[in-house]
Amino acid sequence: MLVATAAVAQERVTFSEFEAATQAAATRSGECRREVVRGPGERCERFWDYMDNRYEPLTIAFSELMEEEGIKAFEGASNVRLQMHRNRQSDITTNLNYITEMMQ
What we know:
0% strand, elongated
């Protein structure tokens, strides 16, 4: 994972890329949440793989960009677009909590 994090951190991550990755993570977390009721399987495996190898490194890289550029990192995104992004992040958190609880 450190290699993936270093590779992403070296390239400039845009808000659009981070937004798309968040959408994909939200979709995969929802799929895993539906699957975990029967026991985690392929969808949950894809979700965790995506989180570890794509979403987490992009999150770190975008956080670094926000520290450097502040609000400019968001590329002038509209309030609606930012709210949709926050909602997706909230969905991921809610699904993660549910998945983790069900796997115990």
